[in-house]
Every structure is written in C-alpha cells, then in structure tokens.
Amino acid sequence: xxxxxxxxxGFIGKELCQKLIDQNHTLSILSRSPHQNTQAxxxxxxxxxxxxxxxxxxxxxxxxxxxxxxxWTTKQKDILRASRINITQQLVDLIKNSxxxxxxxxxxxxxxxxxxxxxxxxxxxxxxxxxxxxxxxAQLCADWENTxxxxxxxxTRVCLIRTGIVLNKEGGALKRMLPxxxxxxxxxxxxxxxxxxxxxxxxxxxxxxxxxxxPNSKGAYNFVSPEPITHAEFNRILSQVVKRPAFFHAPEIxxxxxxxxxxxxxxxxxxxxxxxxxxxxxxxxxxxxxxSLFL
Length: 295
Prior knowledge:
- This protein has 295 residues and is α/β, with parallel strands linked by helices.
- It has one domain (2-166, 199-225, 271-286): 3-Layer(aba) Sandwich (Rossmann fold), CATH 3.40.50.
- It contains 9 helices and 13 strands.
- It has helices spanning 11-22, 74-96, 136-149, 172-182, 201-212, 231-242, 252-259, 264-267, 275-279; strands at residues 2-6, 26-30, 41-44, 58-61, 104-110, 157-163, 165-167, 187-189, 195-196, 198-200, 219-223, 229-230, 248-250.
- It has a 7-stranded parallel sheet with strand order 3-2-1-4-5-6-11, with helices on both faces. Strands 7-10 form a two-stranded parallel ribbon. Strands 8-13 form a two-stranded parallel sheet.
- Helix 1 (11-22) packs across helix 5 and helix 2 runs parallel beside helix 3.
- The longest helix is centred in the N-terminal third of the chain and has 23 residues, at 74-96.
- The radius of gyration is 19 Å and the shape is globular.
C-alpha cells in the first residue's frame, strides 16, 4: 500500500513505520524535521504539498503536541487543540477533495476521551460504548474524533484509536518513570486505587496494522490491554523490576497544586477494555502487566 503518515517520527510512529517498511509498503511521512528520503520513504514538512490524496491507499494520523509536557495555560490548550484538530481537518479536506480517496483513515485519539470513570462494583470495566467525559482532555478528544469522522464515506472508512498509556522502556511515560524508580524515588500517586489502562508498544503497533488490513473495521477502538491495573499494583511491579523501594507518596491535593488540570491524567480512574479489538479477533501479545515489559 501507499500510505501517508503524520507523526511518523514520534515514539509510536517510528516503530509503526519500520514495520510497514518491513512489509514492503511505500510511505510518505509528514515531519517538521528534515529527513533524507529513501526508496521506501518520502518525507514532507507540510500538507501544502498536496492538493488531494488520490495517490494514497491509507492515511494514518498520529500527529499531536505532547499533552503532559507543559502546563495547561489557555495558550497551551490552544496549541494542543491546533496540533490535533487542525491537521486532522486538513487531512479530511484533502480526502474530500480526492476523486479516488484513500480507503482507510486511521486517526489518533486517547482514553482521555472518557475522563474519570465511576468506581462501581457492577461496572468494573468500561468499553467503547462509554460516554465522553466533561474535562478538557475529554472534550479535546471528542472534538478531535468528530473532525476525523467527517472523512467517513462509502469510499473511506474511519478508525479512531483511543490510546492508553503506551509502555516501552525506550520512550513514552515509562522512559520518564524508570530513572526515578531506579533511584528509589518511585511511589504511589494519589491513593493508588485508580485504574490505569495501558498497552505495550508492540501491541499498539500491531493493532494499527490489524485495523489497516481489516476492511470491516471502523469507528472507535480502545487501544489498551485486556487487563487494566491499579496504580498501586503498577507501582509494586515496577519497584520489583528495578529492585528498589517505592515508598514515596504524591497525594492527590499536592498533584493538583503542582500540575493543575494535568493531574487528571494521573488520577483519573480508567478501567477500560479493548472490547471491539477482541470482538474482531485481534490477539494481544501482552495481556497482563509483567516485569518483562519493563526490561
């Protein structure tokens, strides 16, 4: 396939692009940084190079300003929105301007869509039918998804990937956590009872490939493992892996004072399951959080 990818040089994008190259796909990658073109990959710095997307079989949209790196000022919120919604709208416009549009549009989102989910004994886990939350991150994801869905037609199917915490020691959240835990500075966040929905980098990339190759797949998908875990258990396993105590405690009130609204990304309860991926036959390599994922 001839595939256009935004965010192809990021943490997830690099791994995805390498697998697609290994499978003999031809890639066009949108990146703000200059790169050397190869036989399999052509780099672009802007979508202004395109009038339409007639030459592409699929679009994978992973672009977006990192959401946790900076304080959520009004200006930063605008940047977060623009980095997701504006580029998605540009892709939608190009798809609509195509006589022979791509058959597949896979666009990013996040489990932040759900916000802080209730802790109920009769509803321990939540799937893709769960309603959107009302916090900033939730509304950002909803607007991002609604923009992508404008590309849906009888010629183009749209898949939305609601990504949880992606685990791999080479990047993402785990790359930041490991040094602290190795120094014995790890510990519980809030009361530790909140569920974190996570997915290994390998499963995340394989799930994108699964959606790409299954023409009946469409709509929103939770990109999380089948077994979410409480933060307290996550903390215990990571402490066990690095063989260091993890007794430090970051109380909820302190996190809210330091991080403001961003604290919700650490404190929200999100016991999510990937029901649609499971229903459609995707097989996870990493169902449970085990020490091997951190090594």
